[in-house]
Amino acid sequence: MADLSRLNKRLWRLMKIPPRLAYAIGLGPLIGRHVLLLTTTGRKSGLPRVTPLQYEVMDGIFYVGSARGDKSDWYRNILADPKVEVRVKSQHFVGIAEAIADVERVADFLEISLARNPRMMGNLFRLFGLPREPNRAQLEGYAAHRTVARIHPQT
Fold first, then answer.
1. Structural domain of residue 10, as residue ranges?
2. What are phi and psi of 94, to 5 degrees?
3. pTM for this one?
4. Pairwise CA distance, residues 112 & 90, whole Å
């Protein structure tokens, strides 16, 4: 079972490469419609850690979700140090991240993400055994194992 866990962690790390590469070669404005790069400070190493994440913006505040819940390294890093850097489209800013684990608030984020990105979120839900358009109870069941962070840009 430990080997499967290591394999899953390696796959998650491999999934980070294409968005990071796209930003590196100047495709940030294109890929940035759906994905931002979040830089956290490693809670153990103290080194910068860059993670591509799907996001939503509401009232000037950025919301990012963790498919791995509170097991995600980036999420655990913001619990240790909430100061983050964000690269989205052609913007770059410093922000303060606030962890959200409340099931209803995570489900709200998922509903908004589904409404704005039905194809992408529908495929994600299907990957986790949900219908493409889950009802609220199904979303809350899924949200019980997920987390969200709210990022307040600093001026």
1. 2-153
2. -100, 145
3. 0.81
4. 24
In degrees, rounded to 5, the angle at the alpha carbon of residue 40 between the alpha carbons of residues 151 and 94 is 50
Phi-psi category of 35—alpha, beta or left, where left has phi over 0 and alpha has psi -120 to 50? beta
User: Per the structure, how many domains does the chain have?
Assistant: 1
How many CB atoms are located within 10 Å of the residue 24 CB? 10
| Cβ atoms 67, 59 nearer than 8 A | no
C-alpha closest to that of 36 among 118, 91, 94? 91
More confident residue, 72 or 12: 72
C-alpha torsion 11→16→17→23, nearest 10: 170
At 93-120, the pLDDT tens digits run 999 999 998 999 999 999 999 999 899 8
Which pLDDT does position 148 carry in this prediction? 95
Q: Which two tokens stand for residue 86?
A: 């964000």
CATH number at residue 56: 2.30.110.10
Q: How many helices (H) and strands (E) does the chain have?
A: 7, 6
Confidence of residue 85 (pLDDT cuts 50, 70, 90): very high
